[in-house]
Amino acid sequence: MDKVKGLLTLEEAARYLGVSKTSLRRWTNEGRLACHRVGVRRERRFDIQMLTEFLGGGDLHAPKMRIGGGDVAQGLSDMARQGAQRHVCLFYRDAAEQWENFKPYFLDHFNAGAPTVYLYDSSTPEEFSARLSQEGIDGDEAQRSGLLQLFSSRDSYLKTGSFSADQMIETMRGFAKGLIDRGSEKQLLVGEMSWFFTGAAGVEEIHDYESRLNELLMQMPSVTIVCHYDVTRFDAENALQACCSHPVVQLGERLQPGFYA
Protein backbone atom coordinates (compact mmCIF):
# COMPACT_ATOMS: atom_id res chain seq x y z
CA MET A 1 0.00 0.00 0.00
CA ASP A 2 2.83 2.41 0.85
CA LYS A 3 4.40 1.74 -2.54
CA VAL A 4 1.14 2.48 -4.34
CA LYS A 5 0.79 5.75 -2.44
CA GLY A 6 4.17 6.83 -3.77
CA LEU A 7 3.21 6.29 -7.41
CA LEU A 8 1.93 8.98 -9.77
CA THR A 9 -1.48 8.68 -11.40
CA LEU A 10 -1.79 8.96 -15.17
CA GLU A 11 -2.84 12.60 -14.84
CA GLU A 12 -0.01 13.42 -12.43
CA ALA A 13 2.58 11.71 -14.63
CA ALA A 14 1.30 13.52 -17.73
CA ARG A 15 1.53 16.86 -15.92
CA TYR A 16 4.98 15.96 -14.58
CA LEU A 17 6.29 15.25 -18.07
CA GLY A 18 4.33 18.03 -19.78
CA VAL A 19 2.54 15.69 -22.17
CA SER A 20 -1.04 14.56 -22.74
CA LYS A 21 -2.65 11.58 -21.01
CA THR A 22 -3.35 10.20 -24.49
CA SER A 23 0.39 10.13 -25.24
CA LEU A 24 1.12 8.31 -21.99
CA ARG A 25 -1.56 5.71 -22.67
CA ARG A 26 -0.18 5.13 -26.18
CA TRP A 27 3.42 4.83 -24.96
CA THR A 28 2.46 2.26 -22.32
CA ASN A 29 0.32 0.31 -24.82
CA GLU A 30 3.25 0.29 -27.27
CA GLY A 31 5.62 -0.88 -24.56
CA ARG A 32 7.77 2.23 -24.81
CA LEU A 33 7.07 3.32 -21.23
CA ALA A 34 6.80 0.97 -18.26
CA CYS A 35 4.07 1.42 -15.68
CA HIS A 36 2.47 -0.35 -12.74
CA ARG A 37 -1.12 -1.60 -12.94
CA VAL A 38 -3.10 -1.33 -9.72
CA GLY A 39 -6.60 -2.20 -8.48
CA VAL A 40 -9.34 -4.16 -10.12
CA ARG A 41 -9.51 -1.59 -12.93
CA ARG A 42 -5.79 -2.05 -13.67
CA GLU A 43 -5.18 1.70 -13.61
CA ARG A 44 -1.77 2.94 -14.67
CA ARG A 45 0.66 4.23 -12.02
CA PHE A 46 4.16 5.59 -12.54
CA ASP A 47 7.22 6.07 -10.36
CA ILE A 48 9.96 8.63 -10.82
CA GLN A 49 12.59 6.03 -11.71
CA MET A 50 10.48 4.76 -14.60
CA LEU A 51 10.01 8.27 -15.93
CA THR A 52 13.71 9.06 -15.56
CA GLU A 53 14.68 5.92 -17.47
CA PHE A 54 12.13 6.71 -20.16
CA LEU A 55 13.65 10.14 -20.71
CA GLY A 56 17.16 8.77 -20.70
CA GLY A 57 18.12 10.88 -17.72
CA GLY A 58 17.18 14.12 -19.49
CA ASP A 59 14.86 16.98 -18.56
CA LEU A 60 11.91 15.43 -16.72
CA HIS A 61 9.64 18.15 -18.05
CA ALA A 62 10.47 17.55 -21.72
CA PRO A 63 8.16 15.00 -23.40
CA LYS A 64 9.24 12.48 -25.97
CA MET A 65 8.92 13.74 -29.52
CA ARG A 66 9.42 11.51 -32.54
CA ILE A 67 12.70 12.69 -33.90
CA GLY A 68 15.40 10.10 -33.55
CA GLY A 69 13.96 9.02 -30.20
CA GLY A 70 14.72 12.37 -28.57
CA ASP A 71 12.62 15.05 -26.92
CA VAL A 72 11.72 18.53 -28.19
CA ALA A 73 14.80 20.26 -26.80
CA GLN A 74 17.13 17.42 -27.83
CA GLY A 75 15.53 17.17 -31.25
CA LEU A 76 16.05 20.84 -31.96
CA SER A 77 19.59 20.61 -30.62
CA ASP A 78 20.35 17.71 -32.97
CA MET A 79 18.93 19.64 -35.91
CA ALA A 80 20.98 22.71 -34.94
CA ARG A 81 24.16 20.62 -35.07
CA GLN A 82 23.12 19.55 -38.55
CA GLY A 83 22.89 23.20 -39.62
CA ALA A 84 19.23 23.92 -38.89
CA GLN A 85 18.21 26.90 -36.82
CA ARG A 86 15.75 26.83 -33.94
CA HIS A 87 12.82 28.07 -36.03
CA VAL A 88 9.76 25.82 -35.96
CA CYS A 89 6.65 25.82 -38.12
CA LEU A 90 4.04 24.28 -35.82
CA PHE A 91 0.96 23.04 -37.67
CA TYR A 92 -2.28 22.36 -35.81
CA ARG A 93 -5.94 21.65 -36.57
CA ASP A 94 -7.75 23.02 -33.53
CA ALA A 95 -7.08 24.89 -30.28
CA ALA A 96 -6.59 21.71 -28.24
CA GLU A 97 -3.99 20.33 -30.66
CA GLN A 98 -2.34 23.74 -30.83
CA TRP A 99 -1.75 23.73 -27.07
CA GLU A 100 -0.69 20.08 -26.89
CA ASN A 101 1.87 20.62 -29.66
CA PHE A 102 3.17 23.87 -28.24
CA LYS A 103 3.12 23.03 -24.53
CA PRO A 104 6.46 21.15 -24.50
CA TYR A 105 8.29 24.22 -25.81
CA PHE A 106 6.77 26.49 -23.19
CA LEU A 107 7.26 24.10 -20.27
CA ASP A 108 10.83 23.38 -21.33
CA HIS A 109 11.61 27.10 -21.05
CA PHE A 110 9.36 27.98 -18.12
CA ASN A 111 10.68 25.17 -15.91
CA ALA A 112 14.23 26.27 -16.71
CA GLY A 113 13.46 29.86 -15.71
CA ALA A 114 13.76 30.96 -19.35
CA PRO A 115 11.42 33.72 -20.62
CA THR A 116 8.81 33.58 -23.38
CA VAL A 117 7.26 36.28 -25.55
CA TYR A 118 3.93 35.09 -27.00
CA LEU A 119 2.26 37.03 -29.82
CA TYR A 120 -1.38 35.97 -29.89
CA ASP A 121 -4.08 36.39 -32.52
CA SER A 122 -6.42 33.40 -32.80
CA SER A 123 -6.37 32.82 -29.03
CA THR A 124 -6.82 35.22 -26.12
CA PRO A 125 -4.78 35.90 -22.96
CA GLU A 126 -7.65 34.46 -20.92
CA GLU A 127 -7.56 31.20 -22.88
CA PHE A 128 -3.79 30.99 -22.53
CA SER A 129 -3.99 31.60 -18.77
CA ALA A 130 -6.62 28.85 -18.49
CA ARG A 131 -4.25 26.43 -20.25
CA LEU A 132 -1.46 27.38 -17.87
CA SER A 133 -3.74 26.92 -14.89
CA GLN A 134 -4.34 23.32 -15.99
CA GLU A 135 -0.58 22.83 -15.70
CA GLY A 136 -0.50 24.34 -12.21
CA ILE A 137 0.96 27.63 -13.43
CA ASP A 138 -0.36 31.02 -12.37
CA GLY A 139 -0.43 33.02 -15.61
CA ASP A 140 -0.63 36.38 -13.84
CA GLU A 141 2.40 35.54 -11.71
CA ALA A 142 4.28 34.29 -14.78
CA GLN A 143 3.72 37.68 -16.38
CA ARG A 144 4.65 39.62 -13.23
CA SER A 145 7.90 37.67 -12.98
CA GLY A 146 8.73 38.39 -16.62
CA LEU A 147 8.82 34.71 -17.61
CA LEU A 148 5.83 35.33 -19.88
CA GLN A 149 5.05 38.41 -21.97
CA LEU A 150 1.87 38.53 -24.05
CA PHE A 151 1.30 40.86 -27.00
CA SER A 152 -1.59 40.92 -29.46
CA SER A 153 -1.02 40.85 -33.20
CA ARG A 154 -2.30 44.42 -33.26
CA ASP A 155 0.59 45.40 -31.00
CA SER A 156 3.20 43.46 -32.94
CA TYR A 157 2.63 42.15 -36.47
CA LEU A 158 0.05 44.81 -37.39
CA LYS A 159 1.21 47.62 -35.12
CA THR A 160 0.87 50.25 -37.84
CA GLY A 161 -2.34 48.75 -39.21
CA SER A 162 -0.42 46.89 -41.90
CA PHE A 163 2.37 44.32 -42.08
CA SER A 164 5.96 45.02 -43.05
CA ALA A 165 8.59 42.28 -43.07
CA ASP A 166 11.32 44.89 -42.44
CA GLN A 167 9.52 46.35 -39.46
CA MET A 168 8.59 43.00 -37.94
CA ILE A 169 12.15 41.67 -38.19
CA GLU A 170 13.28 44.64 -36.11
CA THR A 171 10.40 44.08 -33.69
CA MET A 172 11.46 40.46 -33.20
CA ARG A 173 15.07 41.53 -32.83
CA GLY A 174 13.97 43.86 -30.04
CA PHE A 175 11.92 41.15 -28.32
CA ALA A 176 14.82 38.70 -28.52
CA LYS A 177 17.36 41.19 -27.23
CA GLY A 178 15.08 42.06 -24.32
CA LEU A 179 14.83 38.40 -23.34
CA ILE A 180 18.56 37.78 -23.79
CA ASP A 181 19.36 40.76 -21.57
CA ARG A 182 17.55 38.97 -18.72
CA GLY A 183 20.55 36.67 -18.55
CA SER A 184 18.86 33.30 -19.16
CA GLU A 185 20.57 30.59 -21.20
CA LYS A 186 17.71 30.34 -23.70
CA GLN A 187 14.69 32.32 -24.85
CA LEU A 188 11.42 31.56 -26.64
CA LEU A 189 9.51 33.73 -29.12
CA VAL A 190 6.09 32.54 -30.29
CA GLY A 191 3.73 33.86 -32.93
CA GLU A 192 0.21 32.89 -33.99
CA MET A 193 0.15 33.51 -37.74
CA SER A 194 -3.62 33.85 -38.20
CA TRP A 195 -3.21 37.64 -38.54
CA PHE A 196 -2.46 36.75 -42.18
CA PHE A 197 -6.21 36.41 -42.73
CA THR A 198 -7.04 39.97 -41.67
CA GLY A 199 -6.40 41.12 -45.24
CA ALA A 200 -4.27 44.00 -43.93
CA ALA A 201 -1.86 45.57 -46.38
CA GLY A 202 1.45 43.74 -46.59
CA VAL A 203 0.34 40.33 -45.29
CA GLU A 204 1.65 38.80 -48.52
CA GLU A 205 5.17 39.40 -47.11
CA ILE A 206 4.62 36.70 -44.48
CA HIS A 207 6.89 34.10 -46.09
CA ASP A 208 9.66 36.59 -46.87
CA TYR A 209 9.53 37.58 -43.19
CA GLU A 210 9.66 33.95 -42.06
CA SER A 211 12.70 33.24 -44.25
CA ARG A 212 14.51 36.28 -42.87
CA LEU A 213 13.91 35.15 -39.30
CA ASN A 214 16.46 32.40 -39.97
CA GLU A 215 19.10 35.05 -40.63
CA LEU A 216 18.16 36.76 -37.38
CA LEU A 217 18.57 33.50 -35.47
CA MET A 218 22.06 33.06 -36.88
CA GLN A 219 22.93 36.08 -34.72
CA MET A 220 21.00 34.82 -31.68
CA PRO A 221 21.65 31.07 -31.30
CA SER A 222 20.05 30.85 -27.84
CA VAL A 223 16.63 31.89 -29.19
CA THR A 224 13.90 29.52 -30.36
CA ILE A 225 11.02 30.81 -32.51
CA VAL A 226 7.81 28.79 -32.86
CA CYS A 227 5.27 29.94 -35.47
CA HIS A 228 1.70 28.59 -35.23
CA TYR A 229 -0.09 27.72 -38.49
CA ASP A 230 -3.69 26.50 -38.56
CA VAL A 231 -3.73 23.95 -41.42
CA THR A 232 -7.52 24.18 -41.64
CA ARG A 233 -7.14 27.81 -42.74
CA PHE A 234 -3.86 28.03 -44.67
CA ASP A 235 -4.22 26.60 -48.16
CA ALA A 236 -1.78 24.10 -49.64
CA GLU A 237 0.39 26.72 -51.34
CA ASN A 238 0.85 28.77 -48.18
CA ALA A 239 1.40 25.68 -46.04
CA LEU A 240 4.11 24.54 -48.46
CA GLN A 241 5.72 27.98 -48.42
CA ALA A 242 5.70 27.85 -44.62
CA CYS A 243 7.58 24.54 -44.81
CA CYS A 244 10.06 26.17 -47.19
CA SER A 245 10.75 29.09 -44.83
CA HIS A 246 11.32 26.97 -41.70
CA PRO A 247 14.21 24.59 -40.95
CA VAL A 248 11.95 22.57 -38.65
CA VAL A 249 8.31 21.53 -39.14
CA GLN A 250 6.05 19.92 -36.55
CA LEU A 251 2.75 18.15 -37.14
CA GLY A 252 1.34 16.29 -34.17
CA GLU A 253 4.17 14.67 -32.27
CA ARG A 254 6.56 14.58 -35.20
CA LEU A 255 9.45 16.98 -35.70
CA GLN A 256 10.74 16.95 -39.27
CA PRO A 257 13.38 18.94 -41.14
CA GLY A 258 11.74 21.69 -43.16
CA PHE A 259 12.75 22.73 -46.66
CA TYR A 260 14.60 25.89 -45.70
CA ALA A 261 18.28 25.73 -46.56
Strands, helices and their partners?
Blueprint: H1 2-5, E1 8-9, H2 10-17, H3 21-29, E2 36-38, E3 43-46, H4 48-54, H5 72-81, E4 87-92, H6 95-110, E5 116-120, H7 125-134, H8 139-145, E6 148-152, H9 165-180, E7 187-192, H10 206-219, E8 223-230, H11 236-244, E9 248-251, E10 254-257
Helix pairs in contact: 2-3, 9-10
Strand percentage: 15-25%
Structural class determined from secondary elements: alpha/beta
Oligomeric state: single chain
CATH architecture of the largest domain: 3-Layer(aba) Sandwich
The tally of beta strands, per DSSP, is 10
Shape: globular
**Count of separate structural domains:** 2
Strand order of the largest sheet: 6-5-7-8-4-9-10
Describe this structure in words.
- By secondary structure, the protein is an alpha/beta fold.
- The protein folds into two domains: 53 residues, Multidrug-efflux Transporter Regulator, Chain: A, Domain 2; 186 residues, Rossmann fold (3-Layer(aba) Sandwich), CATH 3.40.50.300.
- Helix content is 42%, strand content 18%.
- Strands 6-5-7-8-4-9-10 form a seven-stranded mixed beta sheet, sandwiched between helices. A three-stranded antiparallel beta sheet has the order 1-3-2.
- Helix 9 packs parallel to helix 10.
- It starts with a helix and ends with a strand.
